[in-house]
Design goal:
The chain is an alpha/beta fold. It has helices spanning 15-38, 126-138, 141-147, 154-159, 161-164, 266-304, 307-316, 322-326, 334-338, 340-345, and strands spanning 118-119, 168-181, 193-200, 208-212, 227-243, 246-260. The chain is rod-shaped, with a radius of gyration of 41 Å. It starts with 14 loop residues before the first helix and ends with a helix.
Length: 346
């Protein structure tokens, strides 16, 4: 006779089996989360962007509703958009002594002829334009960058053009268009300028227009350039130009050139870094699943060698004479067993 009591609980109350069920539920939840993540296309765009062209930058939306973009009524001497008239044989009257030694600011009195919110460049602004161009050509790009102020933004110069006219400011943004701009003598291209259109973070969808005396060699003229640049230029006026929606205004700068940011594979580098993280994440998931499967198999083998497995197998094993004993049993109608009295009455 055996008096030893098996202290192990039934399989459905076994702590190890409970842990196993909890692990299976966790694996199932992980699979569901993974499926939900991978079914969204936006979660995989960065992963497949290595061989693709960088997407166009979305300009930062900025509320500029309080700015007045209306063009003043043109007076005598106005020109069509993007045009500049040079009077024959009239040379600009530049007094070099009046320019002063202050690189950071051109004396405002030398720019009195400038008129804001007028379409294009006016004939009356020629002398003032030439004064600024002379200052820009006389200085090096390094001198301009060091003297420029970098805390004056789009809204400031737009709303208070008179106070900041002639101020050397530094801006950074996205270059979208660069094209040749005829200037100076009609029969000569030596004085021609480059007209650039760019957006900064604080300008929203409203561009800056910049007239350059030099063009960087690494950037070709064209449309939709989408290149990050920085420049130091003198604020000249609020420049009027024509668009498909009508006349518009953009702050105008006069600069020597701009510094283009190198075309580093930012998108590719980001994709490579993230792909490395994804690789380690997948390896971690595989290892977790492998450890759990190994634990389950090891636990099953250990259970099969235990005394509890022998008991469970004996309980489910039928005696040898059990099947043969069934053949001697009398067959009965189940209806009579359930409702005997009703069957007899019928």
């Amino acid at each position: 006779m055996r008096f030893q009591k098996d202290s192990s609980p039934p399989p459905y109350l076994n702590r190890k089996d409970q842990y196993r069920m909890l692990g299976l539920v966790g694996m199932l939840m992980l699979i569901v989360i993974s499926i939900d993540f991978t079914r969204k296309p936006e979660n995989w765009r960065w992963f497949f962007s290595i061989a693709e062209e960088p997407a166009e930058m979305e300009l930062k939306e900025l509320s500029l509703d309080d700015l007045d973009f209306r063009i003043d009524e043109p007076a005598d001497g106005s020109l069509p958009p993007d045009t500049f008239v040079v009077v024959g044989d009239d040379k600009p009257k530049i007094d070099l002594n009046q320019l002063g030694l202050d690189v950071q600011r051109i004396p405002p009195e030398l720019l009195d002829e400038v008129q804001d919110k007028r379409v294009g460049l006016l004939r009356s602004e020629q002398d003032a334009m030439d004064r600024v161009l002379h200052r820009v050509r006389a200085l090096t790009q390094k001198e301009l960058n060091e003297a420029a102020v970098d805390d004056i933004g789009f809204r400031v110069v737009f709303t208070d053009a008179e106070s900041y006219r002639g101020q050397l400011i530094q801006i950074e943004g996205t270059l979208w268009r660069l094209q040749k701009y005829p200037f100076g003598e009609r029969d000569s291209t030596e004085d021609d300028l480059w007209q650039a259109w760019m957006f900064s973070d604080d300008s929203g969808n409203n561009p800056w227009v910049v007239f350059l005396t030099e063009k960087p060699e690494e950037i070709e003229a064209g449309e939709d350039i989408n290149r990050q640049v920085s420049l130091a230029g003198y604020f000249f006026k609020n420049y009027g130009y024509a668009t498909e929606q009508g006349l518009h205004i953009a702050p105008m700068l006069i600069a020597k050139s701009f510094t283009a940011q190198p075309l580093a594979p930012v998108v590719d580098q980001k994709a490579e870094d993230l792909s490395l993280y994804v690789f380690f994440f997948l390896i971690t998931i595989v290892l977790i699943f492998g450890v759990m499967v190994w634990y389950f198999i090891s636990s099953d083998r250990k259970f099969n060698k235990s005394h509890l497995a022998e008991i469970a197998e004996e309980r489910h094993k039928l005696p040898d004479d059990y099947v043969s004993s069934l053949s001697g049993q009398e067959a009965k109608d189940p209806n009579k067993l359930v409702m005997p009295e009703t069957t007899e009455q019928k």
